[in-house]
Design goal:
Layout lengths: L1 H26 L3 E7 L15 H19 L3 E5 L9 H10 L4 E8 L9 E6 L5 H11 L23 H4 L6 H17 L4 E7 L2 H5 L4 E8 L3 H8 L1 H41 L3 H10 L2 E2 L8 E2 L2 E2 L5 E9 L8 H7 L4 E6 L2 E9 L2 H11 L7 E7 L2
Parallel strand pairs: 1-2, 1-3, 3-6, 4-5, 9-13
Antiparallel strand pairs: 4-6, 7-8, 10-12, 10-13, 11-12
Helix pairs in contact: 2-9, 6-9, 8-9
Amino acid sequence: MYCNMRLRLALLAAVCLICCISLTSVSAKNLTVVIDAGHGGKDPGAVGNTFLEKNINLKVALALGQKIKENFQDVSVVYTRNNDTYVTLQDRASIANHANGDLFISIHTNASESHNVVGTETFTLGLAKTNANFEVAKRENSVMLLENDKEVYQGFDPTSPDSYIMFELMQSTYIDLSILMADYVQTEFTAKGRSDRGVRQAGFWVLHQVKMPSILVELGFITNPSEEKFLGSTDGIASLTDCIYCAFTKFKHEYDKKTVSTENQKNDKSKEKVNNDKSKEKKTKKSDKSEKINSDKTMVNQPKTTNNDTIYKIQCFAVHKQIDKSELDYRRAAKFGKVSFAKVGKYFKYYVGEFSSQDEAQKLLEKVRTVFPTAFIVKFEPDI
């Protein structure tokens, strides 16, 4: 009888363990982060008096990945390189896309002709609006000149400003999340006392090729003697790793919220289709903080109108800071009519058009997408 009792307890424990494993696998949301240590192998990157960029990048990348794996069981970490090997820019992008990554973090170390320049900066994809940004992009893209098969880059010349026109004609689908992550990184660096050179945009080939939110972090200037000493030190590597890790934890929190919100929104929509009670539908919509109404199923915050009419506008783009009317994107949007904007969270979202029906807005949307491919319709509900 005692043996039977032990057997029953053992079976019960096994069943409980299986149930726990099953529940964990169902409830966990797997996020894949791709960590890209810039340069490597025959490509040393920027060279300091003592250290090489490729080695600093790799140490931070491996430390960051290890820290994420230790603290997040529901996160998969993929490296574009985990040793001192040369990986082409296109292969880095292919690795990230093949892994179906949710976030791409490219780690680099900066350089300047002046030994006095210091500080960190984090880039997202976009058209370089300053010569300094262009020089950084040109230096990082120039690694493709080391490759034998240059046809894979479709004639892109990293040294020619004309080649970067392609970045003027695109608008990244993932720009909002990319800027969000970049801002988190810079905030963490600043909190640790690093000199903040800000969140910037430039035409990095590898960021253009990956199909996910992506950033390129410049850890500091290896050409500045004191900063080089910090970048190459054990304490420096640990500090830099902690900053990017803390930024990642914030990003994951927002990513998880967005995933949950998206799923809840789908459920709400299904209920609305079944329920034809207009008054009840209005109450349901009023309680929602965001509404997906465009064909791309994009989650957007739902601003309110000041009158009693529902209106529809076309969102052309979103940026981290309010832009001037002389800026290129503003002028391009203005070709489609009066430009308006709203500050939603940390972002300034820019719109054109104002229609009483979604069908009317759809006609303009088709034209706007010839310039802003990721533009979509936003519904403004009356504030009642």
